[in-house]
Design goal:
- The protein is built from seven helices and no strands.
- By secondary structure, it is an all-alpha fold.
- Helix 1 runs antiparallel to helix 5, helix 1 crosses helix 6 and helix 2 runs antiparallel to helix 3.
- The longest helix has 56 residues.
C-alpha cells in the first residue's frame, strides 16, 4: 500500500467524521428547536384558556380583583414577549404563579368550586400546566444533550468552525419556585 493510498484513506475518514459530526449537531439543534416549539404550543393553549377562566371566576371574586389582574397582566406579558427567550421564560413563570394564586384563592369560594364550568377550566389548565412542565423538561434535556455535544472534544472543533452556540436552559424564577402564600 502506497503512502498516497494511506493519505487518501485518512483524508476520507476525516471527511466522513466531519459529515457525521456536523449532521449530529444539526439533529441535536433541531431537537432543541422542536422542544421550544412544544413549549410555545402549550403556552398558546394556556394563553387561550386564561380569559375563559377569568370570566368564570369574576362574578365570585369581586373583592379578589388583584388576583384576577395579576393573571391578566401575566397573560399580557407573555403576549408582548415575542421571540425573546428571557422575556418568554419570565412571562411563563409569572403566569404559573398567578394561576397558582388564583386556584388557591378559589378554594375559599364553595360556589365557585362547585361550578362545572370552573372545574372544567381548572382541569384543562392543570392538564396544560402538566404538559408545560413536561415540555420544559423535554426542552432542557435536549439543551443538555446539544450543549454537551458542542463542548466535548473533538466535536467542539466542529461546533466552533460551523458557529454552533449553546442554548440556555429554561429555569423557573425564584418566585415561581416558592409555594403560593394566600392570606386574608
Amino acid at each position: 500500500m502506497s503512502i498516497l493510498n494511506i493519505v487518501l484513506i485518512i483524508l476520507g475518514l476525516i471527511i466522513l467524521w466531519l459529515i457525521f459530526g456536523y449532521n449530529r449537531l444539526v439533529t441535536l439543534r433541531n431537537r432543541v428547536q422542536e422542544a421550544l416549539s412544544d413549549i410555545d404550543a402549550q403556552s398558546k393553549r394556556r394563553f387561550d384558556l386564561i380569559p375563559n377562566l377569568v370570566e368564570a371566576v369574576k362574578g365570585y371574586m369581586q373583592h379578589e380583583k388583584n388576583v384576577l389582574e395579576n393573571v391578566t397582566k401575566a397573560r399580557a406579558a407573555l403576549m408582548s414577549a415575542g421571540n425573546d427567550f428571557h422575556k418568554k421564560a419570565e412571562a411563563e413563570n409569572m403566569i404559573s404563579g398567578a394561576l397558582k394564586s388564583l386556584f388557591a384563592v378559589a378554594e375559599n369560594y364553595p360556589q365557585l368550586r362547585a361550578s362545572e364550568n370552573f372545574l372544567r377550566l381548572q382541569d384543562e389548565l392543570t392538564d396544560t400546566e402538566n404538559k408545560m412542565l413536561a415540555s420544559r423538561r423535554f426542552y432542557n434535556t435536549n439543551v443538555r444533550d446539544f450543549n454537551t455535544a458542542i463542548q466535548k472534544f473533538p466535536t467542539n472543533l466542529l461546533a466552533n468552525i460551523f458557529g454552533f452556540k449553546a442554548f440556555e436552559f429554561f429555569e423557573a424564577e425564584a418566585e415561581a419556585r416558592d409555594a403560593v402564600k394566600v392570606s386574608f
